[in-house]
């Protein structure tokens, strides 16, 4: 970068023309994603592997909701994690504490003892730590550019997202091979090492973060602090009593926990919308109209995530049971099939970004959502057809999974980055943070909901019918959304956020960061 464009950057060493703190956050996030997606690559197969192969021997209908819960719960914990950073810890300490908790979770899972206790305790820690690290490291990236140009900020996030994709790709590539068919704790240990490397990189580069993320942005006042402590203590006591009663009834099982958490996620989403509209007292009528339009988009996003974020659960189970993983002349672990998505994201992100710029106002946000949900539903129609072939005794060739993941990726690029953009566009100025929290509730609700649908429907109708039922829900949602898109755009347009006003940013490499 030239001295004239960025005088501050020219007086110190930079990372590809960006603040050196970006390199610190790039490496930290890369290794954290290595650990997260590495674990996702082996979790389902570990849960379903027989005890003779050092697994837990769970049925697919029990294991799938657990794996889906892992993929979706991090979005739910991001809400309190973001609040703790804003009001108590500050983003920098939140990321450090979250990384330590994640590493401890992986270490707990890596201890080679029989029984599920340490494994599920480790999963709980990983979800908890991700809620602290996940939202706040992205906040710190943005704060590196306070007072800088939007173009440089967007470029910095593009570099940061490359770290996300690189870490996810390597995690899914390496961890399943290390785990093999019975070395699960070695795979869990690899995830722990990855997070440890990320923490070392983060601590080593602490000074390069300058003033980024030091202290809470809105610290609690003295009177607020006492109230928060009381609410937390009362909530913990109520939760402990409820869990004790639940356990005493004998219904606290691996099957019921995902169900209860799914119900709580739905309740949280409903409560959050009630809260948002209750807080919208000072917004204009046009902004309220935009919020009403957003409800429709949110419902569509829940359906999208319900299908899309089953890569580490339902799609991995399908790959393990029905796909010829040796059909390309080498053995690809079932969890490794997920990397088709990583590859396609890297290839098609800039292409879709260019398409949206070319389409401009001629193809509005609601239409993009409808297209994305429809493509995702189509991929599940294809899965249903493949399941029929597998049911007849024909192993599915690995190449067919390329088609499935290609359709899923195209669907993602129509929904995820567009959704982030329209969320910031439609949110009233005093509710931007809250509405972004609502957006993250979409995958928090949709992902475990898909796992619950699998557990409920598959024993009754079988896998093929299950795929067709969820595909039908997605396609019907897409059709309804397309029909009502003009009305939604009119509501959005009242606040200056219609298709003529919304210009989505280029598609980001991953949906979840």
From TrEMBL:
<feature type="transmembrane region" description="Helical">
    <location>
        <begin position="94"/>
        <end position="111"/>
    </location>
</feature>
<feature type="transmembrane region" description="Helical">
    <location>
        <begin position="158"/>
        <end position="178"/>
    </location>
</feature>
<dbReference type="InterPro" id="IPR050171">
    <property type="entry name" value="MFS_Transporters"/>
</dbReference>
<dbReference type="InterPro" id="IPR000109">
    <property type="entry name" value="POT_fam"/>
</dbReference>
<feature type="transmembrane region" description="Helical">
    <location>
        <begin position="34"/>
        <end position="56"/>
    </location>
</feature>
<feature type="transmembrane region" description="Helical">
    <location>
        <begin position="62"/>
        <end position="82"/>
    </location>
</feature>
<feature type="transmembrane region" description="Helical">
    <location>
        <begin position="436"/>
        <end position="459"/>
    </location>
</feature>
<keyword id="KW-0813">Transport</keyword>
<comment type="similarity">
    <text>Belongs to the major facilitator superfamily. Proton-dependent oligopeptide transporter (POT/PTR) (TC 2.A.17) family.</text>
</comment>
<dbReference type="InterPro" id="IPR036259">
    <property type="entry name" value="MFS_trans_sf"/>
</dbReference>
<dbReference type="InterPro" id="IPR018456">
    <property type="entry name" value="PTR2_symporter_CS"/>
</dbReference>
<keyword id="KW-0472">Membrane</keyword>
<dbReference type="Pfam" id="PF00854">
    <property type="entry name" value="PTR2"/>
</dbReference>
<feature type="transmembrane region" description="Helical">
    <location>
        <begin position="369"/>
        <end position="388"/>
    </location>
</feature>
<protein>
    <submittedName>
        <fullName>Peptide MFS transporter</fullName>
    </submittedName>
</protein>
<keyword id="KW-0812">Transmembrane</keyword>
<keyword id="KW-1003">Cell membrane</keyword>
<feature type="domain" description="Major facilitator superfamily (MFS) profile">
    <location>
        <begin position="24"/>
        <end position="489"/>
    </location>
</feature>
<keyword id="KW-1133">Transmembrane helix</keyword>
<feature type="transmembrane region" description="Helical">
    <location>
        <begin position="294"/>
        <end position="319"/>
    </location>
</feature>
<dbReference type="InterPro" id="IPR020846">
    <property type="entry name" value="MFS_dom"/>
</dbReference>
<feature type="transmembrane region" description="Helical">
    <location>
        <begin position="394"/>
        <end position="415"/>
    </location>
</feature>
<feature type="transmembrane region" description="Helical">
    <location>
        <begin position="254"/>
        <end position="274"/>
    </location>
</feature>
<feature type="transmembrane region" description="Helical">
    <location>
        <begin position="117"/>
        <end position="137"/>
    </location>
</feature>
<feature type="transmembrane region" description="Helical">
    <location>
        <begin position="465"/>
        <end position="484"/>
    </location>
</feature>
<feature type="transmembrane region" description="Helical">
    <location>
        <begin position="339"/>
        <end position="357"/>
    </location>
</feature>
<feature type="transmembrane region" description="Helical">
    <location>
        <begin position="184"/>
        <end position="203"/>
    </location>
</feature>
<feature type="transmembrane region" description="Helical">
    <location>
        <begin position="228"/>
        <end position="248"/>
    </location>
</feature>
<dbReference type="InterPro" id="IPR005279">
    <property type="entry name" value="Dipep/tripep_permease"/>
</dbReference>
């Amino acid at each position: 970068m030239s001295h004239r464009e960025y005088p501050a950057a020219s007086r110190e060493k930079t990372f590809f023309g960006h603040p050196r703190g970006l390199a610190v956050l790039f490496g930290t996030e890369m290794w954290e994603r290595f650990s997260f997606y590495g674990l996702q690559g082996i979790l389902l197969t570990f849960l379903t592997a027989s005890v003779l192969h050092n697994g837990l021997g769970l049925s697919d209908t029990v294991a799938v909701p657990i794996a889906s819960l892992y993929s979706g719960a991090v979005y739910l914990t991001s809400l309190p994690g973001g609040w703790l950073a804003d009001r108590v810890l500050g983003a920098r300490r939140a990321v450090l504490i979250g990384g330590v908790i994640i590493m401890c979770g992986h270490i707990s899972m890596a201890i080679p003892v029989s029984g599920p206790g340490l494994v599920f305790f480790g999963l709980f820690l990983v979800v908890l730590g991700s809620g602290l690290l996940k939202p706040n490291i992205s906040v710190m990236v943005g704060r590196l550019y306070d007072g800088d140009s939007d173009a440089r900020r967007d470029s910095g996030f593009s570099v940061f997202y490359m770290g996300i994709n690189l870490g996810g790709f390597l995690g899914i590539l390496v961890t399943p091979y290390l785990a093999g068919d019975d070395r699960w704790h070695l795979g869990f240990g690899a995830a722990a090492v990855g997070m440890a490397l990320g923490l070392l990189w983060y601590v080593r580069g602490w000074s390069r973060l300058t003033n980024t993320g030091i202290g809470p942005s809105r610290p609690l006042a003295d009177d607020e602090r006492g109230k928060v402590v009381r609410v937390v203590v009362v909530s913990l006591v109520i939760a402990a009593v409820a869990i004790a009663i639940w356990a005493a009834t004998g219904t606290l099982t691996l099957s019921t926990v995902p169900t209860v958490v799914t119900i709580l996620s739905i309740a949280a989403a409903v409560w959050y919308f009630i809260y948002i509209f209750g807080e919208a007292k000072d917004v204009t009528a046009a902004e309220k109209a935009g919020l009403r339009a957003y409800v429709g988009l949110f419902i569509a996003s829940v359906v999208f995530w319900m299908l899309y974020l089953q890569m580490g659960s339902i799609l991995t189970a399908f790959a393990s049971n029905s796909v010829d993983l040796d059909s390309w002349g080498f053995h690809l672990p079932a969890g490794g099939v997920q990397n088709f998505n990583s590859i396609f994201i890297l290839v098609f992100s800039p292409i879709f970004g260019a398409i949206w710029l070319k389409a401009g106002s001629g193809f509005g946000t609601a239409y993009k959502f409808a297209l994305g949900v429809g493509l995702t539903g189509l991929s599940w129609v294809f899965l249903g057809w493949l399941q029929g072939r597998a049911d007849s005794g024909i192993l599915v060739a690995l190449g067919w999974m390329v088609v499935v993941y290609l359709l899923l990726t195209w669907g993602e690029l129509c929904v995820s980055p567009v959704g982030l953009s329209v969320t910031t566009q439609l949110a009233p100025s005093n509710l931007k943070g809250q509405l972004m929290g609502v957006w993250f509730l979409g995958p928090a609700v949709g992902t475990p909901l898909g796992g619950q649908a699998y557990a409920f429907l598959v024993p009754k109708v079988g896998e093929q019918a299950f795929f067709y039922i969820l595909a039908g829900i997605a396609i019907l949602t897409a059709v309804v959304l397309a029909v009502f898109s003009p009305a939604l755009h009119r509501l959005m347009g009242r606040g200056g956020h219609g298709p003529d006003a919304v210009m989505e940013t280029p598609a980001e490499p991953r949906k979840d960061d």
